[in-house]
Fold this protein.
Amino acid sequence: MTLPRDQLLNGARDPAGLAPLVDQAELVLRTWQPIWSEFLDAPLQEEGLQRLNGLSDLVWQRDGGYPGAERCRLLCRRGTDEEEGEIAAPISGLLIEGNFLFDPLSPMDLRQALREMGASEQELGDLWVRGDRGGQGLVIPDCATALHERRGRIRDVEILVEKVELSQLQLPAQRTPKKLTTVEASCRVDAIASAGFGLSRSKVVTQIKAGRLRLNWQPVRQGSREISVGDRLQLQDRGNLEILSCQRTKRDRWRIELLRR
C-alpha cells in the first residue's frame, strides 16, 4: 500500500525527519509487522503523530524508556488500541562512569562523548547526570552492546561505559503536573520562565545564554520575546511549562495561567 507521501510531507517543519516515519508506516501496512523507529526528538515525535495518527488501520505508540522522557521511539502497528495493549520499546540502559568532582558535567557532554565513541544521534535516548560520578542514559540495545565496557574521554576525564538493565538505572525524578498562576507586567519569555520555573530573572538570562531554555523546542535567543497561549517552554533539568491563558487585568498587567510538568 502506498501512502499519500507528498500530502503528508507538504508543509512539514522537518520533512527529512518525517519521511522515514512514512516509510515505516508503509512497511507496516505491507507486512503487518509492528516496527519501532529510532530515537526521535520531541518536535519530530509531535509532528509525526499529528500527521500520521489519522491513517486508517495504523496505531502509533511513543516510548522513551520512562514516563516523561523527551527523546522517544515510535511504534507503528496494525490494529486498534482496544485490540492490543502497549508494547515495551527495545531500550537498554547505560552507565557512564568517571570522576567529575572538579569538572562539572552536562547531558550534552555525555551525548558528545558517546557520539565520539561511535554512537549515532538516532541511537541515543535521554541522557542525564548523576552527581559527580558520571551519568546514565537510554540507548537502542545494539548500541549498548557495542559500547559495553569501552572507555572514552570527556575533556580530561576518562569514562567507562557499561550496559545495564533499565531496572538498575536511577531514572530522573518525575514531576507531578501542577497549575500555576502569576501576574506579570508583560508576557516576555524571561518573566514567564522566572515565575514558572522558580528562578530569578538573572538566572533565567544565564540559562538563555547557555542555550538551555527553549520555546516550542527551539532555543530562545532573546528574553524579551513574547509568548502566546499554547506556547511551551522547556528548561534543561527543570521540566517544561505550557501557557494555558493570558488575560489583561484591570491594572493593565497580565494574569498568566501555566501548567508545569
